Amino acid sequence: MHTDLDAFRRPKDQHAALVEIAELAEGRIIITRDKQTIVGYVTFHYPDEMERWSEGGMKDLVELGAIEVANDYRAYGIGKQMLQTAFADEQLENAIVFATEYYWHWDLDGSGLNVWEYRSMMEKLMKSVDMVWFATDDPEICSHPANCLMVRVGCKVPLSSIERFDRVRFKQRFMY
């Protein structure tokens, strides 16, 4: 692991987390290497059972858990290429893929961007694979206006799954 891959945990611990995800039946990892060093990765897995997103018990709801590229490699479009690889050939058309974007995971110092510029960059990156902003009342996402929920609903996802996801997104919604 490149030493700059530390947005979520220390590189050694992140490597262990990638191994754990690879061992999951639904786990998917796309990596970019420079020789033998991992310089970027994107992960997909079911939502953690301790999170709200698992409450629907949906087998077609997949979390884009993390995307990270080492500082020296960020100008090459590696993040976008990894995402496009992950979604290529209709691989995720039978799933709702979501990403929870929290500003506290963003490399504001290293990027030189402010929180709104970074949010714009992340939205643009996610839009490259047709993920769009979805509203939610999730407390963590609502805790800061820059946080957001990005979602892509595959074209083979049944309406019943979309409706179930809506009920997970909005737990405080009241019908009048």
TrEMBL record:
Gene Ontology biological-process annotations: acetoin catabolic process
GO function term, MF aspect, one: acetoin dehydrogenase (NAD+) activity
Gene3D superfamilies: 3.40.630.30
N-acetyltransferase domain span: 1-136
InterPro entries named among the record's database cross-references: AcuA, Acyl_CoA_acyltransferase, GNAT_dom
Domain of life per record: Bacteria
One Pfam family cited in the UniProt record for this chain: Acetyltransf_1
The protein's name: GNAT family N-acetyltransferase
Lineage, broadest ranks: Bacteria, Bacillati, Bacillota, Bacilli, Bacillales
